[in-house]
From TrEMBL:
Gene3D superfamilies: Aspartate Aminotransferase, domain 1, Type I PLP-dependent aspartate aminotransferase-like (Major domain). It holds the Pfam family Aminotran_1_2. The gene is hisC. Its EC number is 2.6.1.9. GO terms for molecular function: histidinol-phosphate transaminase activity. It catalyses: L-histidinol phosphate + 2-oxoglutarate = 3-(imidazol-4-yl)-2-oxopropyl phosphate + L-glutamate. The modification N6-(pyridoxal phosphate)lysine is found at residue 221. Its cofactor is pyridoxal 5'-phosphate. InterPro entries: Aminotrans_II_pyridoxalP_BS, Aminotransferase_I/II_large, HisP_aminotrans, PyrdxlP-dep_Trfase, PyrdxlP-dep_Trfase_major, PyrdxlP-dep_Trfase_small. Homodimer. This is Histidinol-phosphate aminotransferase. Residues 49-355 form the Aminotransferase class I/classII large domain. The lineage of its organism: Bacteria, Pseudomonadati, Pseudomonadota, Gammaproteobacteria, Alteromonadales. Belongs to the class-II pyridoxal-phosphate-dependent aminotransferase family. Histidinol-phosphate aminotransferase subfamily. Pathway: Amino-acid biosynthesis; L-histidine biosynthesis; L-histidine from 5-phospho-alpha-D-ribose 1-diphosphate: step 7/9.
């Protein structure tokens, strides 16, 4: 039976032969003279004194140890998963890969549900792919019926749960409803960059029933490793077969893979969970304190490492905080988020400084 991925993938990708890098081709031997590397190289001080003294060699085609370690972590929460996983340079590369793999410029469209993460539309625009927008409802949940109307003409549906910038998780029942409705038409992508901060479970456990479900994850948020640019894309074999044709020859640098493996060790996971628990406590305290301020109209619920706040009309909270040396994220560009700013949760000391500044906001 033909998979949905094979029906949707453009003919150019269908015919594409993946670039055969030296590491991808592999081989056995004791002299490695196939990748135009320097067999001997200068020692750059401390740079070459770490756990990896082979920086003159290209990294693995795909960092299997890193990907497997992350899959093991996922299975601790979701049970045994029947899917493939690939490490990518942050969740943003996963989004870009999906658009380039399954969309044909000038012909296909994706669906997004604003207000949501801006990279979905950006990646589509950069590849001349149309973006169909089905705005969230007033409670920031999905407008399921209107999304369904767009599924027959759309290749990808991007859902962000928990959602950025609104902070809420998407009802799993709605995701299942859309997975059922899209079986023959659309690949459904659930971006779970903030899942560790959420009370909602991951959508990963749905993969065994819905092979057209794709999940994006990252080490940038709860793991606190934004600088290393390491994310993960989890999908059925039928989907990954085409993604692997477009993935870069050496997508993850060895130092990145080393740091990721440490973060995914038993000790690393324990530290992440402690850090996440502490952040959630600070988030809830901060929300409570915000609601006591006269300038604050509404504090939205959050299952992320940030809070979305609506201030009273005509109060320029963003500019005021800038003047106090506190940089937040203005949401004025989103029609549904007038008078709103998004504030990342930092240390309790940072949030206390922010609160003290806001007490003087008129």
């Amino acid at each position: 039976m033909q998979s949905l991925a094979s029906k949707l993938v453009p003919s150019a990708v269908q015919k594409l032969i993946p670039y055969q890098s030296a590491r991808r081709l592999g081989g056995n031997g004791h002299l490695w003279l196939n990748a135009n590397e320097l067999e001997t190289c200068a020692q750059y001080g401390d740079l070459s004194q770490g756990s990896n003294d082979h920086y003159h060699r290209y990294p693995d085609f795909l960092p299997h140890d890193t990907a497997q370690a992350y899959l093991n972590y996922c299975e601790q929460q979701s049970g045994k998963l029947d899917c493939e996983i690939v490490a990518v340079r942050g969740a943003d590369e996963a989004i870009d890969l999906l658009v380039r793999t399954f969309c044909s410029p000038g012909n296909d469209q994706i669906i997004i549900c604003p207000p949501t993460y801006g990279m979905y539309e950006f990646c589509a625009d950069s590849f001349s792919v149309k973006t169909c927008k089905v705005p969230l409802l007033e409670n920031f949940q999905l407008d399921v019926e209107n999304i369904k109307k767009q599924l027959p003409s759309s290749t990808l549906l991007f859902l962000c749960s928990p959602n950025n910038p609104t902070g809420n998780g998407i009802n799993e029942a709605d995701i299942v409803d859309l997975l059922e409705a899209s079986k023959d038409s659309t690949l459904v992508v659930v971006d779970e960059a903030y899942i560790e901060f959420s009370k909602h479970g991951s959508a990963l456990h749905l993969m065994h029933k819905y092979p057209h479900l794709i999940v994006i994850r990252t080490l940038s948020k709860a793991f606190g490793l934004a600088a290393i640019r390491c994310g993960f894309l989890l999908a059925d074999t039928s989907v990954m077969a085409y993604i692997n044709r477009l993935i870069a020859p050496y997508p993850i640098a060895d130092p990145t893979a080393e740091i990721a493996l440490k973060a995914l060790s038993q000790n690393g996971l324990h530290l992440m969970q402690q850090q996440t628990s502490k952040l959630i406590q600070v988030r809830e305290w901060f929300k409570g304190q915000l609601m006591l301020l006269d300038s604050v109209q509404h504090v939205f619920g959050s299952e992320t490492n940030f809070v979305l706040i609506r201030f009273s009309n005509n109060v320029n909270s963003y500019q005021y905080l800038i003047e106090q040396g506190i940089v937040t994220r203005n949401q004025i560009h989103e029609p549904a988020l007038n008078d709103c700013i998004r504030i990342t949760i930092g240390s309790k000391e940072s949030m206390l400084e922010t609160l003290n500044a806001l007490k003087n906001l008129n």
